[in-house]
Design brief:
Blueprint lengths: L1 H10 L29 E6 L3 E6 L6 E3 L12 H5 L19 E5 L6 E5 L2 E2 L21 E3 L3 H8 L1
Antiparallel strand pairs: 1-2, 3-7, 4-5, 5-6
C-alpha cells in the first residue's frame, strides 16, 4: 500500500492537463548550451546570408557597422537588443585563424566582449533558436559575421 502512495505522490507533479513551464532563455540572453563543447564557434550557412559565424549552440553572431576596430558603439538600450558575445575560449572553428579573434573590455559596462578582426560580436535578442538570423541587415547596420566584415574593415 505504501509503495502505491509513493507512486501517486511522485507522479502527481506530472499531470497531463497542466501547461508546460516556459523553458526557453530570456529574450535578451540566448541559450548557451553547447551542442559540441570542443568547438565553441561554428560556421553555418543560409541562402540569405551565405556562410556565417555562430556560437556552439548555433546562435548567430553579428557585427555592427558603426563599431570601430576595438571599440563598441552599441551602448545603453542598444545592448538590450544586441547582447555582447564573449567566447571565453581560445578554440576557433576550422578554417579560421586564432589571430582573427580577440577580446575587448567594454568601457560602459566593464565586461569582456569577443571580437572578430577587431570588431565586437553580438547576439540578437530576437533570435531564439539555433540557425535564426532575424538580425541580418537590421536597419542596414547589423550583419552576420562573414566575409562582409572584411569589406567594412577595408573601408574604415
Amino acid at each position: 500500500m505504501w509503495k502505491w502512495m509513493i507512486a501517486v505522490v511522485l507522479l502527481s507533479g506530472c499531470m497531463a492537463d497542466e501547461e508546460p513551464k516556459e523553458m526557453s532563455a530570456p529574450m535578451n540572453e540566448p541559450q548557451d548550451a553547447a551542442q559540441n563543447p570542443t568547438e565553441p564557434l561554428r560556421v553555418m550557412k543560409k541562402e540569405e546570408t551565405g556562410q556565417y559565424l555562430a556560437d556552439s549552440a548555433g546562435m548567430t553572431l553579428y557585427y555592427y557597422i558603426h563599431d570601430k576596430e576595438g571599440a563598441s558603439a552599441c551602448t545603453n538600450h542598444c545592448l538590450e537588443e544586441w547582447p555582447p558575445f564573449y567566447l571565453g575560449s581560445s578554440k576557433v572553428p576550422e578554417g579560421f585563424s586564432r589571430s582573427d579573434f580577440g577580446v575587448i573590455t567594454r568601457k560602459d559596462t566593464g565586461e569582456k566582449q569577443s571580437t572578430y578582426k577587431g570588431y565586437p560580436l553580438y547576439y540578437f535578442s530576437r533570435d531564439q533558436m539555433a540557425g535564426q538570423t532575424n538580425g541580418y541587415s537590421a536597419d542596414n547596420e547589423w550583419y552576420t559575421v562573414n566575409n562582409a566584415i572584411e569589406r567594412i574593415a577595408q573601408a574604415n
